[in-house]
Amino acid sequence: MKTVIRAEGVHKRYGTLDVLKGVDLEVTQGEVLALIGPSGSGKSTFLRCVNHLERIDGGRLYFRDRLVGYEEREGKIHELPDTAIAAQRGEIGMVFQRFNLFPHMTALENIMMAPILVKKEPKAEVRERAHDLLARVGLADKAGSRPDQLSGGQQQRVAIARALAMRPDLMLFDEPTSALDPELVGEVLDVMRDLVRVDGMTMIIVTHEMGFAREVCDTVAFMDGGAVVESGPPAAVLGEPRHERTRTFLSKVL
Ligand SMILES: Nc1ncnc2c1ncn2[C@@H]1O[C@H](COP(=O)(O)OP(=O)(O)OP(=O)(O)O)[C@@H](O)[C@H]1O
Ligand SMILES: [Mg+2]
């Protein structure tokens, strides 16, 4: 199995606060990983490190066979130039809790922007792909709508389409449904489910949707205190957790 993400003892601190204290994690091609854990355990921070939105302070973080955000030359680690970081980020799609669409652009323009700006792809080709993606997330008729003309669920589906427009090898989701009204959660989870079933997309999903994790994810990793406490198939981690901390957390959310 090809490794897509490998974290080895990843450390991250903000000032004097140690947030990640040695995260070890591996995600292979086509694997869907649910990252669960209490508030403040470092889930979002870890995702941001995977996309090099944050610099790590220790350990190693690989995307496929390359370091995230860095390269090794003559035994020393150097941060990549901005263009190389942008290119690497383009291979990793990220969807946040808040939809983060550009408010002054239409749904179509939001989706088209990165492939044109970052990858310099021809506009006509990108436009066609953007229409296909909108259809795929069930929004073929919303190409010309601005974010404020869309519901939260629709905005989040545009955000997913926008990430997919870069043809990523990995998708990161940070609580993609937790800012949504309950009746809109299903339409976003349906799109994510479709990505798994149809594309076999490799994904890391921070989520509190335990039903979804159990149904769709191959692996559940429970984080607490800045480290992965246990991970394994959903039935094992959610059904028969080995650690007391996992049991305590699950008793609160299930
Ligand atoms: N930019 C930052 N500067 C300082 N501290 C930060 C920053 N970002 C996160 N933290 C701290 O790092 C810790 C981990 O935060 P993080 O957002 O990764 O947790 P989380 O597991 O995603 O929690 P939640 O479930 O509430 O989203 C928290 O104590 C948080 O206050
Ligand atoms: Mg978070």
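Residues 210 and 254 are 7 Å apart (CA to CA).
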